[in-house]
Amino acid sequence: MRGRVLIVAGSDSGGGAGIQADIKTVTALDAYAATAITALTAQDTTGVYGVVPVDPAFIRHQMELVIADIGVDAIKTGMLHDAGVIDAVAGTVGRLAPQAALVVDPVMVAKGGHKLLEDRAIDAVKSRLAPLATVMTPNTPEATALTGIAIASVADMERAGRAILDLGARAVLVKGGHLGGPEVHDLLVERSGVTRFRSPRIATRHTHGTGCTLASAIAAGLVQGLALQPAVTRARAYVRRAIETAPNLGRGHGPLNHAHTVRPFEA
């Protein structure tokens, strides 16, 4: 295994997103995954039916123990449901792991529509997490929530990405999957310029956890010495293959095949 990723996110009882998707992704890409769980959810492929938050002090304690003993090369954040959690996570990162790459996936709404971030916590994402972020990975609704910019085109995606850079993030990957059309466009916006990624849209309902998976795959690439653009390129390829080979589970938005990189065990 190459590189240590600490994942700070919520648990998904269905196994398709959240901590479960993050661990699968980081492991499948040959890095080491440790976790600090921020919330428990009761969910399946059709939606989220309950959330039990973890106390911010206990989230901080999980992070402190992992960082002190195992160490960390990158931190990936997912579901951070309120301002208190965001303050605890940002404070711990700044105090104990300022050298680690920080991949911030600003999770706001589950695939089934359940809100996973309080509206009043959006300001905390902007003021506390963005200035620490190596890269933020919002989809277009999340980018709109962070910037107030309505996004209907790739040009709008770039405008929103630059506005998030102004919050202090070093880079922003604006994901365009929510926009229509036969192709999916993602924009990596950096102060040095913009890199545009495009790929044919896959017609499938099995897309649960794509955002979590992509952000964790980027984190795995960064801890293995890839620069940001190659890390994004590899992460997008990994996610695409995981969608293409999805196991067709559940009645709603089904999970991906995170294990497509792993050869079957042969006795």
Rg on CA atoms, Å? 17 Å
The topology string of helices and strands comes to EHEEHEHEHEHHEEEHH
What is the correct CATH architecture of the domain at 4-138 and 205-255?
3-Layer(aba) Sandwich
Shape: globular
Structural class: alpha/beta
CATH topology annotation of the domain at 4-138 and 205-255: UDP-N-acetylmuramoyl-L-alanine:D-glutamate ligase
CATH class of the domain at 4-138 and 205-255: Alpha Beta
**Within the largest sheet, what's the order of strands?**
3-2-1-4-5-6
Outline the secondary-structure elements.
Blueprint: E1 4-12, H1 18-28, E2 32-44, E3 47-53, H2 56-69, E4 74-77, H3 83-96, E5 101-104, H4 122-129, E6 135-136, H5 140-147, H6 154-165, E7 171-175, E8 183-190, E9 193-200, H7 210-223, H8 228-244
Helix pairs in contact: 1-7, 2-3, 3-4, 5-6, 7-8
Structure write-up:
The structure is a single chain. The protein has helices spanning 18-28, 56-69, 83-96, 122-129, 140-147, 154-165, 210-223, 228-244; strands at residues 4-12, 32-44, 47-53, 74-77, 101-104, 135-136, 171-175, 183-190, 193-200. Strand 5 (101-104), helix 4 (122-129) and strand 6 (135-136) form a beta-alpha-beta unit. It is built from eight helices and nine strands. The strands form two sheets. It has a six-stranded mixed β-sheet, with helices on both faces. A three-stranded antiparallel β-sheet has the order 7-8-9. Helix 5 (140-147) crosses helix 6 (154-165). The mean pLDDT is 94. The longest helix is centred in the C-terminal third of the chain and has 17 residues, at 228-244. It has 267 residues and is an alpha/beta fold. It has a domain at 4-138 and 205-255: UDP-N-acetylmuramoyl-L-alanine:D-glutamate ligase (3-Layer(aba) Sandwich). It is 37% helix and 22% strand.
